[in-house]
């Protein structure tokens, strides 16, 4: 017998859900002969690629991991004492294994459907409470992208809230972290804000044009100042003040809130999150109660459910960009949920006493180092410090000698001002490490190094006004789970309350919840990836250099563009960066007056918000009766604004899930009038290998690596949003003030780290490596197949709102639900009832209110698609029972959904349907029941009684506040 040989373990077969037999069955249901026919009927011929993707051959999982181990091995793991907002730390193994490496945590979506996200919501409430306690302020959000962008959001908030007239200036201490100043300058310029950078000790705060100020605590060089008098003076002049602070230092230092700060921002990386060559790390933002209605980002708040039990939800969602659109003060979309959960759990596990001990040990060793170096004759300039010494050497030559000797010993310091050396200690520093540092200086100076030991006691030599007296982390949650057993059980208890991809398909349109393969995730926690400081010498990061260069080249091939920037650390950040590139291009040609951004009415809410942040004026383009861009309206507005046209922002396929046939004509029209085309890459999942942004005519596109390229959503973040550009825009890609990136006419930094969230880029690198060009193309084809299969099964029950010329949808579709209103059934009722079937709802009321947008992705099998369709069809029958009067309009299965285990097990049951109908509406649920943790949540109650910290709700029931706006709930 003759046997054939071929690869037995092909990754593309692991990534794509349907096998060959299932594909054949699905094609018959759709009514086509082949997958090729379906693609031809779906994707317009005019935009199809003429050749296959030119990417390296696909690797097996085993081959990829072996290759990547070699690449990562090129990174050199030095001991880093650079500081500047990034510090070595220790993520407790129990948290690493059970959260960071656990798909139950990293594959969940943003907690818009709060009833099946109570675990993450509690973890985020813990994080908010931690930030509130340590900063001494009254309210904190659930995280921002990083410290630099958090500072920029504070500046924007102050600018929008100041009562002073004609204010255009913002004071920034010269001792703020340099990368933060870089991000602030980038954000300020398009908005017409002037940064006044100087010494806070001599600053003139009487300038009537000033609206705010920013300080660093401890300062970038390690100095610790009491800012109380500065803040008092600023307030007297009508200025708001931001203090950027170090969370570890705040366990010993007086809090910014106690100094009078209006906002405290920073980076929670130090609480257990690896440096990861710059990210991802959760930025934090705390402020006074007076700003709670305008605080940027997401707030987790307490409310009650239908049974009167405490329940958590995302509060005040009317502030979010997808509702406010061009009126939004920010384009924030992605947060850093997974990272803020890690930092919050670090505080839960260690508690206030152990964290304070970490800080005490750090300061004790810093004092020990100062004494040893002073004994060698080295001058230390910081009068008061926490962890960082500012050393002054006698000459630049001596500084370079220290650098050579330190790097030879595997140590990285900060070198600045030609003769300065900065050394910042951290949680992992031991007495032996201090001894090694001292030896470097002793050798360079030709002196003998003395012995170094951890002192038994440490005396705080700071002024009494700087020493923290207030308590923090007093809530029981931070004082209970300090044994590993208790911590493990607590995290598992929270995980069990959340629905994730580990349970079932999450069919969110526009969000692409696809497989995050284990082989892609494994390298993320390797030391070679996590232990590098983003400002370490480039020669120590040759592995990262190879990853960046190859990933950029592959993304260029996929998009058809000439260059890519990996810096933007969210999709919304990518939008903003892309628009800044267009803005800089026009200015470079002497056409800085071009400021009109045409944006379709159906666009994602971040689009107009990003345009406003980039200093552009939004002009909305109408949609036609088919939901596509009204080309006549677009041409009229492009011609009307030709002299000042900057760009068009367009999503492709459209936000309605259709490949618009007119896209090439649309792009050509914009170019004819001197504008550029920005393509939102949210739907790139339907382009890869079949068409490309450049092939369509776009000039810029951001790519959601957390969607199309498999980085997990992490419960609402992290994300990565790199941008690709055509050749003449490449010189204007983002730069960085600390690390030379190399773009000739670079715009300023949009993120704190030069390559954004560098440590999760290996996930997308792995995905492309194991799929290859043919595999990526097949993934797109299967995504289109899966969507059209669902369409075929559901369209007789739920009309599909928009389709292409031949009746096909792209990778997603909008299901019409508005006509159910006649029977009193809202789209929210369907979303909540799906929880009883074990599913997360599709995207609710976006982009069309009262509808569901479904995207199955290529990763789901036919069996899973059928289970979801069966659930949707059964729910349609339940709706029909209401329509026909067989079920009460208000007292029915949908209105009471979701049904918790406590509801089902209650002694009394007075509902007009059975417990079995409520809990087990379809047979497969019996074998894999997911119980929602709470009943339907009362959103309005939570907004009237705004509680955003770990505080018993009973204390606040009578303290109702009046809503500023009616909460419209989640839109997607």
Structure commentary:
It is a single chain. The chain has 31 helices and 26 strands. Helix 10 links the parallel strand 5 and strand 6. The C terminus is likely disordered. The longest helix has 39 residues. It is α/β, with parallel strands linked by helices. Its cofactor is pyridoxal 5'-phosphate.
Superfamily at the CATH H level of the largest domain? Type I PLP-dependent aspartate aminotransferase-like (Major domain)
Using only C-alpha atoms, the radius of gyration works out to 28 Å
Beta content comes to 5-15%
Tell me what the CATH architecture of the largest domain is: 3-Layer(aba) Sandwich
Number of alpha- plus pi-helical segments = 31
Based on DSSP secondary structure assignment, what is the total number of beta strands?
26
Rounded to the nearest angstrom, the distance between the terminal CA atoms is 57 Å
Secondary-structure-derived class: alpha/beta
* Morphology: globular
Uncertain parts: 956-972
Helix content range:
25-40%
Number of domains: 3
CATH classification, class level of the largest domain:
Alpha Beta
Q: Describe the sheet with the most strands.
A: 7 strands, mixed
List the strand order in the largest sheet: 2-8-7-6-5-3-4
Average pLDDT for all residues: 94
Might you state the CATH topology name of the largest domain?
Aspartate Aminotransferase, domain 2
Family: Belongs to the GcvP family.
Modified residues (N6-(pyridoxal phosphate)lysine): 707
Catalytic activity: N(6)-[(R)-lipoyl]-L-lysyl-[glycine-cleavage complex H protein] + glycine + H(+) = N(6)-[(R)-S(8)-aminomethyldihydrolipoyl]-L-lysyl-[glycine-cleavage complex H protein] + CO2
Subunit structure: The glycine cleavage system is composed of four proteins: P, T, L and H.
């Amino acid at each position: 017998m003759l046997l054939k040989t071929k690869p037995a373990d092909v990754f593309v077969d692991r990534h794509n859900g349907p096998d060959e037999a299932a594909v054949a069955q699905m094609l018959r249901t759709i009514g086509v002969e082949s997958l090729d026919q379906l693609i031809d009927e779906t994707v317009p011929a005019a935009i199809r690629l003429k050749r296959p993707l030119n990417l390296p051959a696909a690797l097996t999982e085993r081959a990829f991991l072996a290759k990547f181990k070699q690449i990562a091995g090129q990174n050199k793991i030095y001991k880093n004492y650079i500081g500047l907002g990034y510090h070595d730390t220790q993520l407790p193994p129990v948290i690493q294994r059970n959260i960071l490496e656990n798909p139950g945590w990293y594959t969940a979506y943003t907690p818009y459907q709060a009833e099946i996200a109570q675990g993450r919501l509690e973890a985020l409430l813990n994080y908010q409470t931690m930030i509130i306690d340590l900063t001494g302020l009254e309210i904190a959000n659930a995280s921002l992208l990083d410290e630099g962008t958090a500072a920029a959001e504070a500046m924007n908030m102050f600018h929008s809230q100041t009562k002073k007239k004609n204010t255009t200036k913002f004071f920034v201490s010269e001792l703020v972290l340099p990368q933060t100043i870089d991000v602030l300058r980038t954000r300020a310029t398009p908005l017409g804000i002037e940064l006044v950078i100087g010494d806070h000790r001599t600053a003139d705060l009487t300038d009537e044009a000033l609206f705010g100020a920013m300080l660093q605590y401890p300062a970038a060089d390690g100095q610790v100042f009491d800012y109380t008098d500065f803040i008092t003076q600023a307030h007297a002049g009508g200025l708001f003040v931001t203090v950027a602070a170090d969370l570890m230092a705040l366990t010993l230092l007086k809090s910014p809130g106690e100094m009078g700060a209006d906002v405290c921002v920073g980076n929670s990386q130090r609480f257990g999150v690896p440096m990861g060559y710059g990210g991802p790390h959760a930025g934090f933002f705390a402020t006074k109660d007076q700003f709670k209605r305008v605080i940027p980002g997401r707030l987790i708040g307490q409310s009650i459910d239908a049974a009167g039990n405490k329940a958590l939800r995302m509060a005040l969602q009317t502030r979010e960009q997808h509702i406010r659109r061009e009126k939004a003060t920010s384009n924030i979309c992605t947060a850093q949920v997974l990272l803020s959960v890690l930092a919050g759990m670090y505080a839960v596990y260690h508690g206030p006493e152990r964290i304070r001990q970490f800080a005490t040990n750090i300061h004790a060793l810093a004092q020990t180092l100062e004494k040893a170096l002073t004994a060698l004759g080295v001058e230390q300039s910081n009068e008061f410090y926490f962890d960082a010494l500012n050393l002054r050497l006698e000459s630049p030559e001596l500084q370079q000698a220290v650098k050579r000797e330190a790097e030879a010993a595997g140590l990285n310091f900060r070198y600045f001002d030609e003769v300065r050396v900065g050394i910042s200690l951290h949680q992992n520093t031991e007495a032996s490490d201090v001894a090694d540092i001292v030896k470097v200086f002793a050798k360079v100076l030709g002196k003998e190094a003395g012995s170094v030991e951890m002192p038994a006691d440490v005396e705080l030599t700071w002024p009494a006004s700087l020493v923290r007296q207030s308590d923090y982390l007093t809530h029981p949650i931070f004082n209970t789970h300090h044994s590993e057993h208790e911590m493990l059980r607590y995290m598992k208890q929270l995980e069990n309350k959340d629905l994730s991809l580990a349970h079932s398909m999450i069919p969110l349109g526009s969000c692409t919840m696809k497989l995050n393969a284990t082989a892609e995730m494994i390298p993320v926690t390797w030391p070679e990836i996590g232990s590098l400081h983003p400002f370490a010498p480039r020669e120590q990061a040759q592995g990262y250099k190879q990853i960046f260069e190859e990933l950029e080249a592959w993304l260029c091939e996929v998009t058809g563009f000439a260059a890519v920037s990996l810096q933007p650390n969210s999709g919304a950040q990518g939008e903003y960066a892309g628009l800044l590139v267009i803005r800089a291009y026009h200015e470079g040609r002497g056409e800085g007056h071009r400021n009109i951004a045409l944006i379709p009415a159906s666009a994602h809410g971040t689009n107009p918000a990003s345009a406003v942040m980039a200093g552009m004026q939004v002009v909305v383009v109408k949609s036609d009766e088919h939901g596509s861009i009204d080309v006549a309206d677009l041409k009229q507005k492009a011609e009307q604004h030709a002299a000042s046209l900057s760009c068009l922002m367009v999503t492709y396929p459209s936000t309605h899930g259709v490949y618009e046939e007119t896209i090439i004509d649309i792009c050509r029209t914009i170019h004819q009038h001197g504008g550029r085309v920005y393509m939102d890459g949210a739907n790139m999942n339907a382009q890869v290998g079949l068409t490309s942004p450049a092939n369509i005519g776009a000039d810029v596109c951001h790519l959601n690596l957390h969607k199309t390229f498999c980085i997990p959503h992490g419960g609402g973040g992290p994300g990565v949003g790199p941008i690709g550009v055509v050749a003449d825009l490449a010189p204007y890609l983002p730069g960085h003030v600390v690390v030379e990136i190399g773009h000739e006419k670079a715009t300023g930094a949009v993120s704190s780290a030069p390559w954004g969230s560098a440590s999760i880029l290996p996930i997308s690198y792995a995905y492309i490596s194991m799929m290859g060009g043919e595999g990526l193309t097949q993934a797109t084809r299967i995504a289109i197949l899966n969507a059209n299969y669902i369409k075929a099964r559901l369209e007789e029950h739920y009309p599909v709102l928009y389709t292409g010329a031949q009746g096909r949808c792209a990778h997603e579709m909008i299901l019409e639900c508005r006509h159910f209103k006649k029977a009193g059934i809202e789209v929210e009722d369907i979303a909540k009832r799906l929880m009883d079937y074990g599913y997360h709802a599709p995207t609710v009321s976006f982009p069309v209110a009262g509808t569901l947008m479904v995207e199955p992705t290529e990763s789901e099998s036919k069996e899973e698609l059928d289970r979801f369709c069966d659930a949707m069809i059964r729910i349609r029958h339940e709706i029909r029972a209401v329509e026909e009067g067989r079920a009460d309009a208000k007292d029915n299965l949908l209105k009471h959904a979701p049904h918790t285990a406590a509801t089902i097990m209650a002694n009394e049951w007075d509902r007009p349907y059975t417990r079995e109908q409520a809990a087990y509406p379809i047979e497969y649920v019996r074998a894999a029941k997911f119980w929602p943790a709470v009943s339907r949540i009362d959103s309005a109650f939570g907004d009237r009684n705004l509680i955003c910290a770990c505080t018993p709700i009973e204390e606040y029931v009578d303290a109702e506040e009046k809503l500023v706006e009616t909460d419209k709930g989640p839109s997607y």
